[in-house]
User: Fold Bifunctional ligase/repressor BirA from Pseudomonas graminis.
Amino acid sequence: MHTLLKLLEDGAFHSGEDLGLALGVSRSAVWKKLQQLQADIGIEIYKVRGRGYRLASPLSLLDDEALRGGHAELGWACSIHETIDSTNAEAMRVANSGAVLPCLVLAEQQTAGRGRRGRHWISPFAENLYYSLALRMDGGTRRLDGLSLVVGLAVVDTLRQLGIRDAGLKWPNDILVGGKKVAGVLLEVTGDPANVCHVVIGIGININMRESSDVDQAWTSLGLELGHLQDRNNVACALSRNLSAYLAGHQEKGFAAYRRDWEDKHLWQGLGVALTAGATITQGVVMGVGDDGALRLEVGGREEHFSGGEVSLRLKGD
Assistant:
């Protein structure tokens, strides 16, 4: 199936005869494979008599060779999947198997992708970036303070380098463009919280998605913002280079070294917000973040700190 998709990914028409020759099958077998593609991964294929077949729109497929080679330069293993339940779940399985880390897991599609607070992460085939990095963390979970915020900085830097100049952060783990969500971060941890543990850094970036009726909040994508198809391999490699540098800095200096930069890129700095934790709603003004990554709010004339986890942050009155 992957070979057939590679032949069609340019979005141009290809005759059944040419496709059959390339695959070594008959034209009727090509049609059956195309029908199976539509059923299995939900992509739309147009058939026009005399012209052949084409995808409804071009795709940017993951390139195994380029991705493995690019990440080998960082010292990372790279595992690439066509369809998987969740890249975070697979990265956790890899970490718990005793495999050599760091290991990056990428996929064309997720069937059970997830975001913060148990939300489903919409994962259409070959449209966005589904990215999970498994790391060994010596010294326990105290080494994780502010890590998800540092990851957010790596994502924002990557998007700005790619041309999304107004990409910014929303505490704790969202990346926004024009008030719309373009990416999110999800960290999951396993192991001994006081000694050796494994952390999975999950990142989802909307790259070429142009429509979805299943997303329950305002969203955008790189393709929508920049007006043309984006190379997902280029985005993945650029993100990994930035993330590798930030991870090294965080390990050496901690989040405190990045706090001011994070606050400079926080889109809700100085704004009135409502923070929900369970049944409790706290209203205040965003002052910034602490050296541990906790949100600092001015509440009734005093400063209060709130950690991430099962919390939701909204603009006041939203």
